[in-house]
Amino acid sequence: MKLKMIALVPYILMLLMYGKLPDMAQTLKADIALLNSNKDVTVTEISNSGNTESAKKEISIDSFPKWETDKDDTERIQRAVDYCLANGKDLFFPSGGSYVLRSVDVDAGLRLVGYGATFTLADNQPKFTRMFTTENRAWKSAKASDYLIFEGMTFDGNCWNQGPFLNYEMEQQFGIMYMGSTDGTGMLRGKVISCRFQNWAADGVHIYTNADVEVTGSSSINCFRGGIVASGSPSNIRVTDFVAEKGEFGKAMDFEIDTAAKMNLTVDSVRAYRGVDIELSEGSTAKVEGLTVVDSLTTVYGFKDEITINNSSLGHLEVINATNTTINNSTITATPSTTEDVDGAYVWVVDSFDALPKEDYYTVFNNCTFVRSDKDNLVETGKEINAVKGYFGKIALNDCTIGKGFTKGYYGFGVAYSYLTNVFFDSDTAVAMQPLSWARTYQVVLDNVQYGENNSVPYLFLDYMETAPYTIVAFKNMTVDSTKAGYAGAEAIGTTKIESSRIISVVADPTTTSVPGFIGDTARLATPVEGQAYEWVATTSDPIAATWEVSKQ
């Protein structure tokens, strides 16, 4: 003990020299407590520790008393953080603990654990306040860092006491900020485990440059820009088992990268009652699995990125400037509106029309289902509700189902190339095509398309190209009943070239009764009569009664 007290003499002299007697008393109290603690902390001081070895590595925040000169808990936690970093300790916050702070600098290799502890941002903090941040200690190395871990903590942004924020006035206030230096190739690694983010004027956890971060088993509510937000690259982000509750405002997640380097995003098992935005830097990759978005919008901006969404249940979906976006085995649920037309999925190109050839803007839906939120009791709103609407580029639907109640199942508004294969339409209008002079439609292919009982218009022509090259509409591998062989908008076919080889099932000779069809269609008796004609070929197109001739076969 004598040697330990001697070790404090230089520090005491320094304090006396500068006349900081209140701080001296507090420092002596804290340092003597630490020196006398033998192994720094006893096992009984730690909770949520799985074993004795883990407990020996942790030290409680209670070992760091608050000084009289501390404004709040910021300085106390900063002293504890610095001690833990210097001594290889984890910092433990007891359950039920409540801490008010401004901003604390943290670094790689630190673990903060506080199951049941709450950290509240002090009132009236500046716009650029980050509760826990690495920005002043950015990892810079050729090697990846040790992990910076936050576990079991609740981060409260106290947004209602920060001034106006709902118009992005405080968009730089974060609960946690992970930021590594781009001067080194090694990434700052981090984990956020079983944490909660609430009431933030901007972001819960924010990932910026040169960071490799996993957020798992966590939740958020009332985070204006998002519970999880990323704006920088290079970065690797993994989000698993995350729940974003509805609350009063905000988004669930917002990945909006403003830097040029690539990023890799993985999302797995997320339930969001608020919107999700994915806007990555060029050349990036996103893999989404098991994302459930309830009554909110999912936005994907996929220019020169590879984005894949699997086995998900989305609300409304907007895909912008996508060049390689694929949605597999997912459900898109559209909520009708009484004030505006809505789309379940809107796939479009904006501001980048000449950046790439039209066919390079490509979005594909595989084995997807499109439904209305009120499918069990459809409500008439007086507004259109379309399952899929496209503008510009190339869109494919494979093995998809369009449920009942939609005004249009697929609406190609200036889409250059549309490929609909093995699609079942139960919407009022199955397919609508509208070429535009500035967004030309070159080809629409319907391959083995089928129609449900609620479909009244299998195909709707809304316009045609006045100059070559003209639109081609092709019907392939299709057998339909005569009641589903018609179309609407005959006057708008114009220069459109129809290539059709449909088999139309009829109950009588189409030369004696009205059967609609396109040139090239074949009408075939459902029940042939021996010795009589049973197959006819359409020589003209007509939505009500085409001209039919007996097949030479």
Structural notes for this entry:
With 553 residues, the chain is mainly beta. It has a domain of 258 residues: Single-stranded right-handed beta-helix, Pectin lyase-like (Pectate Lyase C-like, 3 Solenoid). The chain is 9% helix and 41% strand. The protein is built from five helices and 45 strands. The strands form four sheets. The chain has a 14-stranded parallel sheet. The protein has a six-stranded parallel beta barrel with strand order 7-9-12-15-13-10. A six-stranded parallel sheet has the order 22-25-28-31-34-37, with no helix packed on it. Helix 5 links the parallel strand 1 and strand 2.
Structural class call reads mainly beta
Spatial ordering of strands, largest sheet: 4-6-8-11-14-16-18-20-23-26-29-32-35-38
Q: For the terminal residues, how far apart are their CA atoms?
A: 109 Å
Helical segment count:
5
Work out the radius of gyration.
Answer: 32 Å
Averaged pLDDT: 92
Which overall shape is indicated by the principal axes computed on the Cα atoms?
Answer: elongated
Beta-strand portion reads 35-45%
- For the report, how would you describe the main beta sheet? 14 strands, parallel
Give the number of DSSP strands.
45
- Looking at the overall shape, the CATH architecture of the domain at 57-314 is 3 Solenoid
Low-confidence stretches: 1-33, 35-53
Give the full name of the CATH homologous superfamily of the domain at 57-314. Answer: Single-stranded right-handed beta-helix, Pectin lyase-like
CATH C-level category of the domain at 57-314:
Mainly Beta
Q: Briefly note the CATH topology name of the domain at 57-314.
A: Pectate Lyase C-like
Which bin fits the share of residues in helices?
under 10%
